[in-house]
Amino acid sequence: MRTFRILYIEDNPADVFLVRSMLETLTWDVRLDSVADGDDGLKFLRRQDPHRDAQRPDLVLLDLSLPRMSGDQVLLAARADPHLRGIPIVVFTSAANEVVCTPIYQENANTCMRKPSDLDEFSHTIRLTCEYWFGIACLPRPNQYVVNFH
Asked: What is the DSSP string of 72-116?
């Protein structure tokens, strides 16, 4: 069975804990890496210090409101980089509506979705997201976009 990797770029440790706990209940083998700000998220994706040994994620969960570099800035930088643009990115925002999501889709996010404040609903959203990306969608081969910016 294949192991799937998720990079969760999120500054709220409680949300990271919840996602990590929920992933343990799935039938897929899913490994979660997390970073707490957008700048560190790009360093992880580019395998720059302190993430030289980072493995390429199959999916990025990206919070829109982040310190140091916002989620939309991370998205723009990742989509501008030919080594990273093949990685699916799901953007979470507490205010998902047409006004917020339209520019995110124009920046080539794969999905823009409301981040539920209710714990059960958030857990359900993560489960459905994993079911889609790991059970229905066809992901790129894990080693197709090997990048190492040192």
From this structure: HHHHHHHHH-TTTTTS-EEEEETT-SHHHHHHHHHTT-SEEEE--
